[in-house]
């Protein structure tokens, strides 16, 4: 890919490139902007994860949903999209949407107001969220792009997925630095997990590394206020 096709805007905290002929922008917050379709994509919100653990007598701080919605609202304010696609595992379990407190429900409704909202089914939330509106689907297509929760085992051109909670490790000044990231190889693009209580898994791990064409791979590591574009050759391999 030539230098003109891939740009990193440090001031805006984003990286833009052409993916299967569609211009996309990876934002440092962990959202993907697709301006041609006026669409913002987010993955693995895992809303109400703290509440889900509490129902199992494993208590976590109860602020994850508030923090996640606040971060999502800030990212949406930067792009003001007409459509939002949530790539599955939007809620941590099947009870999350129904049991969500009214305060958080109102906050989510405010974000959804006046725009199209697509809920993609995930492994944590395979059924549509209750009484929240929006369209629910197993996958959703826009032009050359297909949005789904879990990456397919065989390469599918234009696939945008989540599920993996990807992270990458690079060596800087002799020390490993690991960050959540976007990762793409020209065929598929995998989103970082967005939720406040979500972890991350190394893309070089045996389970995930075979999903990508490493000579063409690029990772976009999330910093505090910018994205760091790294070619596959700089990613630490196992």
Question: How would you describe the overall organization of this protein?
Answer:
The protein has 238 residues and is of the alpha/beta class. The chain has one domain (21-234): Purple Acid Phosphatase, chain A, domain 2, CATH 3.60.21. Helix content is 16%, strand content 33%. The chain has helices at residues 49-54, 64-79, 96-99, 102-112; strands at residues 6-9, 14-19, 22-27, 32-34, 39-42, 83-86, 116-120, 135-137, 139-142, 145-148, 159-161, 166-172, 175-184, 188-190, 201-202, 218-222, 227-231. The strands form 2 sheets. Strands 9, 10, 11, 12, 13, 14, 15, 16 and 17 form a 9-stranded mixed β-sheet that branches. The chain has an 8-stranded mixed β-sheet with strand order 1-2-3-4-5-6-7-8, with helices on one face. Strand 12 (166-172) and strand 13 form a beta hairpin. The longest helix is centred in the N-terminal third of the chain and has 16 residues, at 64-79. The two termini are 26 Å apart.
Task: Give the tags.
globular; 16% helix; eight-stranded mixed β-sheet; Purple Acid Phosphatase, chain A, domain 2; 238 residues
What is the topological layout?
Layout: E1 6-9, E2 14-19, E3 22-27, E4 32-34, E5 39-42, H1 49-54, H2 64-79, E6 83-86, H3 96-99, H4 102-112, E7 116-120, E8 135-137, E9 139-142, E10 145-148, E11 159-161, E12 166-172, E13 175-184, E14 188-190, E15 201-202, E16 218-222, E17 227-231
Parallel strand pairs: 5-6, 6-7, 7-8, 10-11, 11-14, 12-15
Antiparallel strand pairs: 1-2, 2-3, 3-4, 4-5, 9-10, 12-13, 13-14, 13-16, 16-17
Helix pairs in contact: 2-4
């Amino acid at each position: 890919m030539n230098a003109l096709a891939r740009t990193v805007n440090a001031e805006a905290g984003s990286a833009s490139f052409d993916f299967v002929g569609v211009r996309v922008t990876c934002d440092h917050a962990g959202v993907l902007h697709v301006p041609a379709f006026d669409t913002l994509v987010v993955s693995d919100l895992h809303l109400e994860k703290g509440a889900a653990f509490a129902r199992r007598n494993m208590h976590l701080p109860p602020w994850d949903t508030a923090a996640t919605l606040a971060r999502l609202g800030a990212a949406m304010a930067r792009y003001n999209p007409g459509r939002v696609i949530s790539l599955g595992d939007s809620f941590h379990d099947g009870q999350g949407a129904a049991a969500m407190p009214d305060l958080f429900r109102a906050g989510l409704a405010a974000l959804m107001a006046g725009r199209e909202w697509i809920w993609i089914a995930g492994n944590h939330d395979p059924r549509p969220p209750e009484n929240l509106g929006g369209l629910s689907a197993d996958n959703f297509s826009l032009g050359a792009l297909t949005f789904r929760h879990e990456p397919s085992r065989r390469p599918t051109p234009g696939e945008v997925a989540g599920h993996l909670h990807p992270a990458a490790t690079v060596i800087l000044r002799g020390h490993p630095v690991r960050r959540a990231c976007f990762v793409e190889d020209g065929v598929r693009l995998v989103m970082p997990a967005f939720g406040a209580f979500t972890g991350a898994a190394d893309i070089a791990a045996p389970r995930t590394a075979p999903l990508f064409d490493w000579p063409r791979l690029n990772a976009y590591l999330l910093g505090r206020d910018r994205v760091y574009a790294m070619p596959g050759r700089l990613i630490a391999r196992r």
